[in-house]
Each structure stands twice: as C-alpha cells, then as structure tokens.
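Sequence in, structure out.
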Amino acid sequence: METFTSAYSKSIHAVYRTGWLVTVLLVIPWLAWAEPAAIPNEQIFKPSPLPDRIILTPCGDPTEMMGLNWRTDLSITHGFAQIALAEVSRDFVDKAHQVASTTMVVETDNGPATFHSVRFASLSPGQTYAYRVGDGVNWSEWFQFRTASKRPEPFSFIYMGDSQTELKSLWSRVIRGAIVETSGVRFLLHAGDLINRSLRDVEWGEWFAAGAWINGTIPSLVAVGNHEYPRKEGTKESSLTPLWRPHFTLPEDGPEGLAETAYFFDYQGVRFVALNSNEKQEEQAVWLDQILSSNPNRWTIVTFHHPLFSSASKRDNPELRNKWQPVFDKYHVDLVLQGHDHSYARSGPLVYDNIPSGTAAICAPAGTVYVVSVSGPKLYPLERRDWMMRAGEGTQLYQVIRVDGDTLSYKAFTALGDLYDAFNLVKQGEGKPNRMEDYSLLPPERLPSASPGAAKPE
C-alpha cells in the first residue's frame, strides 16, 4: 500500500521532471532564435538564372536610344529583352519586339557571372515604353521608361554625390527617399564613387540592391570616381575597374581610351557632359572645347568626381582646375556637379581668377556654379572657404534640379527630405550673364566643429 509520504514524493518528482522538460522545450528554441547564423554577402549576392542588377543608362540620343544591362549566372548563355510601347492594358505584351543581348562572362572575386547588355534604338521621342529581360522562358517583371522629347520641354533630374559605403543599409534610404519625395524625374546623376572597393562584386551587389527597381525604371547617368580606379597591388598605378563596363552601357563618344567614362548627350535643351577626372585630363580639355564649341543647347551641365574647388580639409585639385576651368569659362558652363569630398558646398558664379563674384551681386559676371555633395553615410569634416555661398557637413543629401525654359531651379534636400539649399539661375539673353536668385528662407548651415561619425579624408 502506497503511503501518503511516498505518493507526495512521487508527485514532487513528477513536477520537477515536468518543469525541467518545459524549461528545455522553452530554452532550446530561444537559443536557436537568439543566435541566427549570419548570411554572408557572398551568398546573398551570388548570381542565379534569374536576371538581377537591371539598370537603364543613356547610351546615345535619349529621344530614340536607351542602354540596358543585367546579370545572370553561367547557366544562361543567351539573353533577350522584349520591348513595346506601353499601353493602359496588358495588350502591349503581345506586341513586344524581342532583342538579343550582347553577353560576356566576367570573373569576379565572388565567382564568374554572365553580364548582358542591349542598346535599344529607333525608339520614338516622348513615349513610354515597357520592357522585360530574360532567357526567353524565365523573365523579369515589366519595367517602364520614357524617352526624351525632341522639344526643350521642362524636366527634372536627381543629382547625388558619393554613395560609396554601407550601401544597402544606409545609402538606400537616400535614393529611395529621393524618389518618394520627387515625382516625374527623368534620370539620376551619380558623381562618382558609387562603391568603395570596386573589385569586390558584393559591393556592386549592395549598390544595385539599394536602388532596386529604381535602376530599371529611371536611367542613371554615372561618372567614375577614384574608387572606380583601384590601384594595382604594390604600386601607385590605378586603372578602371573591370566591373564598370559590364554593369553600364554608356555613350562611346568621348576621347580615345575613355569609352563609357567620358561622354555627352543632349536632353531637352541641356547638354550633359560626364568627364573622367582620374586620367587624361589634358585630352579631355581639348575634347570638351570641341563639343562645347558646337553646342546648340540653352543650358550646359558638367559632372565629374574630383572637385575643382574642394570642400574637405587639406584637399585641392589645382592641376584639374587649371586645365578645365578655362574651358568652362570660355563656353559659360552653367553648372558643375561633383563629389569626392564627402561634405556639401556650393558656390556663386565663379570664373578662373577664383573670385567668387556671386557673393557680391545677384547679376554676376558670367561664371559657373560649382557644387560638391555627398549622399552616402561616410562624411568628412568641412573646411569653410571664401568661395562657398552655402556649405554643410555631417549630412547625407540629394539634389533635385529642374530645367524649365530660361530657368534652372536647384534644391538640395537632407536624407529626411528637408530643404537645405536652393537657388535659381535665370537666362538674361544672348551675351548676358545668368541672374542668380538665392532663397532667403533656408535653415541654419550644419557646421559643427566635429560632426558625429565624420571620417578621415582618403
């Protein structure tokens, strides 16, 4: 016969066993949840049979041409793009025209991949097109883009300085926020240093992941920076990364040896020129003189990476300034958009004698407005200089520029979408300088003595 004591003892042991089992069942999943395995970027950004890194670029006359690139793994040996005039219903799908891609296998530090490129041609001006890419069976989603008009109609574009680091985690908010806050932009302009280590395929993967569908919908005008020119190991020699041209299809109308890194195109009354500030600066000055001497457009905008007037401490580019600024002055270039210094600075109209004439009068002598900006999270301390009409540090920014007839409107916004800088340039007639109109109601400049997270300039 079981006594009360023995029964009680068994009950206590049963409770202990049950409690231990419950504890184990609760703790084991908690431990598994608390310490997930990190997925390496090399795995995240491996190519697959499905298209990724889809991007549009200007590749010639934007009224009738568009460049397109994407990537797959080696199992895809042939690529295709289908394109049609977009319609309000799905009827365009059955009317799509198929174009075979040019393909190339590229060895990267994350393994080989197949890169595809297409140059759409004979498009109609001012029209919306739908396209998709694939292998003939497996396709991407349909994207849409719009060709330029042959008339100088108003348009806007977004300009961004260096993205460079923490691309997926922290630069993504800037490019995505810019699109959310700005409607109807026709293209994105990147002033170099898209990534930090341009031989690392995973960094390119992050850059494309940050832009995501934006890259396949809004064309990107890209300039090369010094980080797209990696140094050869053990030397000071640098050359264009072999991963540049597989990712972008750009105009090949520049100086010899600088294909798809120095180029120009005209867009609705504006001549856009991208220069390569890493090499062959003298040759580009000669070429620039040639293409600006026969420029029929009302406005001229130039972009490159290294600024003629630096905003970071202990930086200056006098050789570049001596070669290029006289050409800008000669042809009255309106606006120069730059990067590299990881801070913000904007001039009034400047001429080659380095006098910031725009600070003294609204109607200044003919000169060029120079801007340095940064969109990524790597930020440098600013060195305030006399040529700056507006400056800032410790701030991720994007700029929205609109051209409408005789007026160019410029606005710089923080990563939060707040207005930071703004001005208008207004054409005054043949032979007269632009009138510069500064906005009077702007927030205080961000000029702390030491910005949080400021990095040492490289």
